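LOG
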Amino acid sequence: MRRVDRTVFGFPFQRFFEVLEQEVRGCDSLLDIGCGEHSPISFFARRLPYTVGIDAFEPAIEKSRALGIHDEYRCMNVLDIEKEVPDQSFDCAVALDLIEHLTKEDGRRLLQAMERIARRKVVVFTPQGFLPQHAVGGNEFQRHRSGWEADEMRGMGYRVLGISGWKPLRGAEAKPNWQPRFLCERFSLLTEPFFERRPEHAFQILCIKEIV
């Protein structure tokens, strides 16, 4: 039964992992900004030639290092990449579930720095609009401080895809909003293909900018 369930519905975030890997494929070096303890990059890191993880929370860095996700790590404030990471030093720079933890002003600073650092591509993953979230697990960096809209990201030159299905179906930490949750989860998965091209109504957005 479980096999049938996976065949019909897939599993949570499966489409996100697939699209993310497609977008970074062909990049020989990747900078994962705000990598956390278990970055989505972990699902295909071994297929990338060289990756570096940056995070401000030392315990997260140590857990990620223990899992061997990235080739190298640096514990630093993510905004310090402005002065600590040279321009055009990585093929790709990604920020996955990061900019919503920054103020709007700092988020724009981060995006500008990423666009200078990347030679080929910048990839950003964030909730569609503001999603309230307090500190998680004693990590104050997990608090949400801003929201980002699909149209806003398009205005900055990003191609935007909707992720995780219809927005009302999920809430804090991307957990199903409705009961019974297992049915809500599956309904959300079924809506993903429709809202991938309608990101304004999706729960999360994946934003990609080609550097030319």
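LOG (cont.) second protein
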Amino acid sequence: MGQQQLLMIVLAIIIVGIAIAISIQLFRSNAIESKRDIVINECTNIATIAISYYKKPTDMGGGGKSFSGWQIPTQMVSTINGSYFAQVTPQQITITGVGTEVVTGNDSIKVQTVVTANDYYSVIIN
């Protein structure tokens, strides 16, 4: 083989290697973003359950205008997508969702959803 052909082969191998590295990084980034969206969605589902509890009268098993006594449903405490914890006060709940996808090192995806009597909002922590 000529010198020019060997140079072209080496150049092609380098370009393919760079393309593969970029593809892997894009796939990982997309997987993290997708898992974060799933954790936010599950926190939102838990928040709507909490608001229903707040609005339901106590004689019907609700909180009667209070979040006191509310707990995350057992089947939603831990899912394949993450684990969920709640800090409950009479007028507000803070739900923290920790995803199973690791972002960097040991840092997992983390989302916090604050629930009040009529609405909720989510904050991405990691």
